[in-house]
Amino acid sequence: MSTSIKPPTSFWIIAILALLWNFMGVYQYYLGNFELESLREAVSPEEFSIMESLPSWYGIVFAVAVFSGVLACIILLARKKLAVPLFGISLLTVLFIEIYWLMGTGIMEAAGYTAAIMPLVVIAVSIFMYFYSKGAAKNGWIS
Predict the structure, then answer these.
(1) Average pLDDT, the chain
(2) Is 80 exceeded by the pLDDT of residue 4?
(3) What gap in Å lies between CA 17 and CA 2, rounded to an integer?
(4) pLDDT band at 2 (very low <50, low <70, confident <90, very high)
(5) Which of 3, 31, 59, 91: CA 20 to 30 A from 53?
(6) Coil, strand, or helix at residue 23?
(7) Shortest CA distance to 76 belongs to which of 122, 13, 125?
(8) Spatial CB neighbours of 123, under 8 Å, sequence gap ≥ 6
(9) Which pLDDT belongs to residue 11?
(10) End-to-end CA distance of the chain, in Å?
(11) CA 38 to chain centre
């Protein structure tokens, strides 16, 4: 079944920007799981210690968050409704890892309140993309 309603130009811009955003998440996943030493000089010793001590499940959930987000963006660009549940999975896992990062690691004590900025931006973008994809489905831009 093909989609008969042509999405606006903003749909394509948002989908492409979201894909680029999620690629940045993949890069962060790569750094945090395979190139952690490269971050040593970019953060304080306390922050690096927190990063080093993250449990293994954190990396797994992080992977689910970023790779389901990338896949959701690709499927959104293909104009398929499967993007909606994939953005939902990404949102749930983002909420889990970011709330854990902020409340379960001591990062706020180590880095101060500025440590909350990026996690909150990530949560906001994830919420936006989930509801945007639902709206795209409702408007008939994806099928």
Answers:
(1) 94
(2) no
(3) 24
(4) low
(5) 91
(6) helix
(7) 13
(8) 94, 95, 98
(9) 98
(10) 7
(11) 21
Identity of the amino acid at 110:
A
Cα separation, 85 vs 2, whole angstroms: 19
What sections of 4-55 are H helices per DSSP? 9-34, 45-52
Distant-in-sequence, close-in-space partners of 134: CB < 8 Å, separation ≥ 6 = 84
The span from the CA of 83 to the CA of 65, in Å, is: 13
Q: Are 97 and 54 in contact (CB under 8 A)?
A: no
Q: Which residues contact 135 (CB under 8 A, 6 or more apart)?
A: none
User: Structure pTM?
Assistant: 0.92
User: If phi over 0 gives left and psi between -120 and 50 gives alpha, with beta otherwise, what is residue 112?
Assistant: left
* pLDDT for residue 1 is more than 70: no
How does residue 12 score in pLDDT terms, banded at 50, 70 and 90?
very high
| Backbone angle region of 2, left / alpha / beta, with phi > 0 → left and psi within -120 to 50 → alpha | beta
Average pLDDT over residues 114-124: 96
